[in-house]
Write a structure and sequence with these properties.
This protein is an alpha/beta fold and 329 residues long. The chain folds into 2 domains: 184 residues, Alpha-Beta Complex (Spore Coat Polysaccharide Biosynthesis Protein SpsA, Chain A), CATH 3.90.550; 139 residues, no CATH class. The strands form 3 sheets. It has a 7-stranded mixed sheet. A 5-stranded antiparallel sheet has the order 12-11-10-14-15. A 3-stranded mixed sheet has the order 5-13-9. Strand 10 and strand 11 form a beta hairpin. The longest helix has 15 residues.
């Protein structure tokens, strides 16, 4: 059995990019992906043995959560599952008892070589890997699985979280603070290429945005952006190629997160290299991306628009205001 399991309850309707996500889960065959959903798996994707597809309902998950957590909760909308995530260690305890770590995450993601990054992060020195909710892992211990239920001064009470019909961002806010207050360690180093939705140009969320959006000061790392950069999927790995002082360089990420919808999908990306842009994927070669002149041309063609994407900008400002009560940005 694998050491890691990712728990993904999902209800309603999948976005078209679910096929991209599932194919990337297939490639990460040393991680088990546990889906609990009322939707059939896409016929176009052949699920490998590391993907478990359990048909259920949102109400059934709510009833299981009530049984495991010990008090009634509101779970009328699938989006409210984000607040339930820190409790998954309890809710789905019967499914994860043999794993060393369990995780949760989004589906607007394309996974790279996740296990490589878990090893690079020296994951077993941490109780949680990643502050953000789009893909996090937690140590599978009774103590960690009960932290979300603990009352800690300055953090919201579990009953107040789960009896609030609105999403309060518990998985990315107070849950992390509860862990830190209990002396637990959270890895916040190099991990994800988290796309900034303020810009049409593909660029990572910077540290200033993290602090403003989440009201979190504990995160002191975010990938640096470069004036000339481009993201690519190359034989199952997520890379950024960039130009610094006239030299082509690259770095690798565990996954790329799009925040809203991933670009349009395509038939087969299990092999080969593809440039990732806001508008879609474009076939490329590693030689093209590692040559200064050809990379410069690709950046100019696919990733050189700085105009803010207004719809997404409005979306994130509204999210910030709702979660902080502040009007400014």
């Amino acid at each position: 059995m694998n050491k890691f399991a990712v728990i993904i309850p999902y209800f309603g309707k999948f976005k078209p990019s679910i096929k991209l996500f599932l194919e990337s889960c297939n490639r990460n065959n040393d991680i088990d992906w546990l889906f609990f959903t009322d939707i059939d798996a896409p016929a176009e994707v052949i699920l490998q043995s590391n993907i478990y597809w359990s048909k259920t309902t949102l109400e059934a998950v709510r009833e299981l959560a009530v049984q495991k957590i010990g008090f009634d909760i509101k779970l009328d909308r699938a989006y409210k599952l984000c607040d339930l995530r820190p409790f998954y260690g309890l809710v789905f305890s019967d499914y994860i008892k043999d794993y060393e770590y369990w995780g949760y995450g989004d589906t607007d993601v394309i996974c790279g070589r996740i296990s490589k990054f878990l090893l690079r992060a020296k994951y077993n020195a941490f109780d949680k890997v990643n502050w953000m909710g789009h893909l996090s892992f937690l140590r599978n211990s009774d103590e960690i699985n009960h932290v979300a239920l603990t009352d800690i001064e300055g953090t919201v009470n579990a009953k107040d979280v789960l009896n609030n019909e609105k999403n309060v961002g518990f998985d990315e806010h107070d849950f992390n603070r509860k862990l830190l207050a209990r002396g637990k360690k959270i890895y916040t180093g190099l991990w994800a290429a988290d796309m900034d939705i303020f810009y049409w140009r593909m660029r990572c969320v910077d540290i200033k945005t993290f602090h403003k959006l989440l009201g979190i000061k504990e995160i002191d790392f975010a990938p640096k952006n470069y004036a000339k950069q481009i993201f690519a999927l190359a034989d199952g790995a997520i890379y950024r190629f960039y130009i610094e002082k006239g030299t082509v360089k690259k770095d690798e990420f565990a996954y790329i997160h799009f925040r809203k919808e991933a670009p349009i999908d395509f038939e087969d990306y299990s092999r080969g290299t593809f440039i990732i842009s806001r508008e879609g994927f474009y076939k490329a070669t590693s030689e093209e991306l590692e040559d200064l002149n050809r990379l410069t041309a690709a950046i100019e063609k696919y990733n050189n628009q700085e105009t803010p994407f207004q719809e997404w900008k409005n979306y994130i400002i509204q999210y910030y205001r709702k979660n902080t009560g502040k009007r400014g940005w």
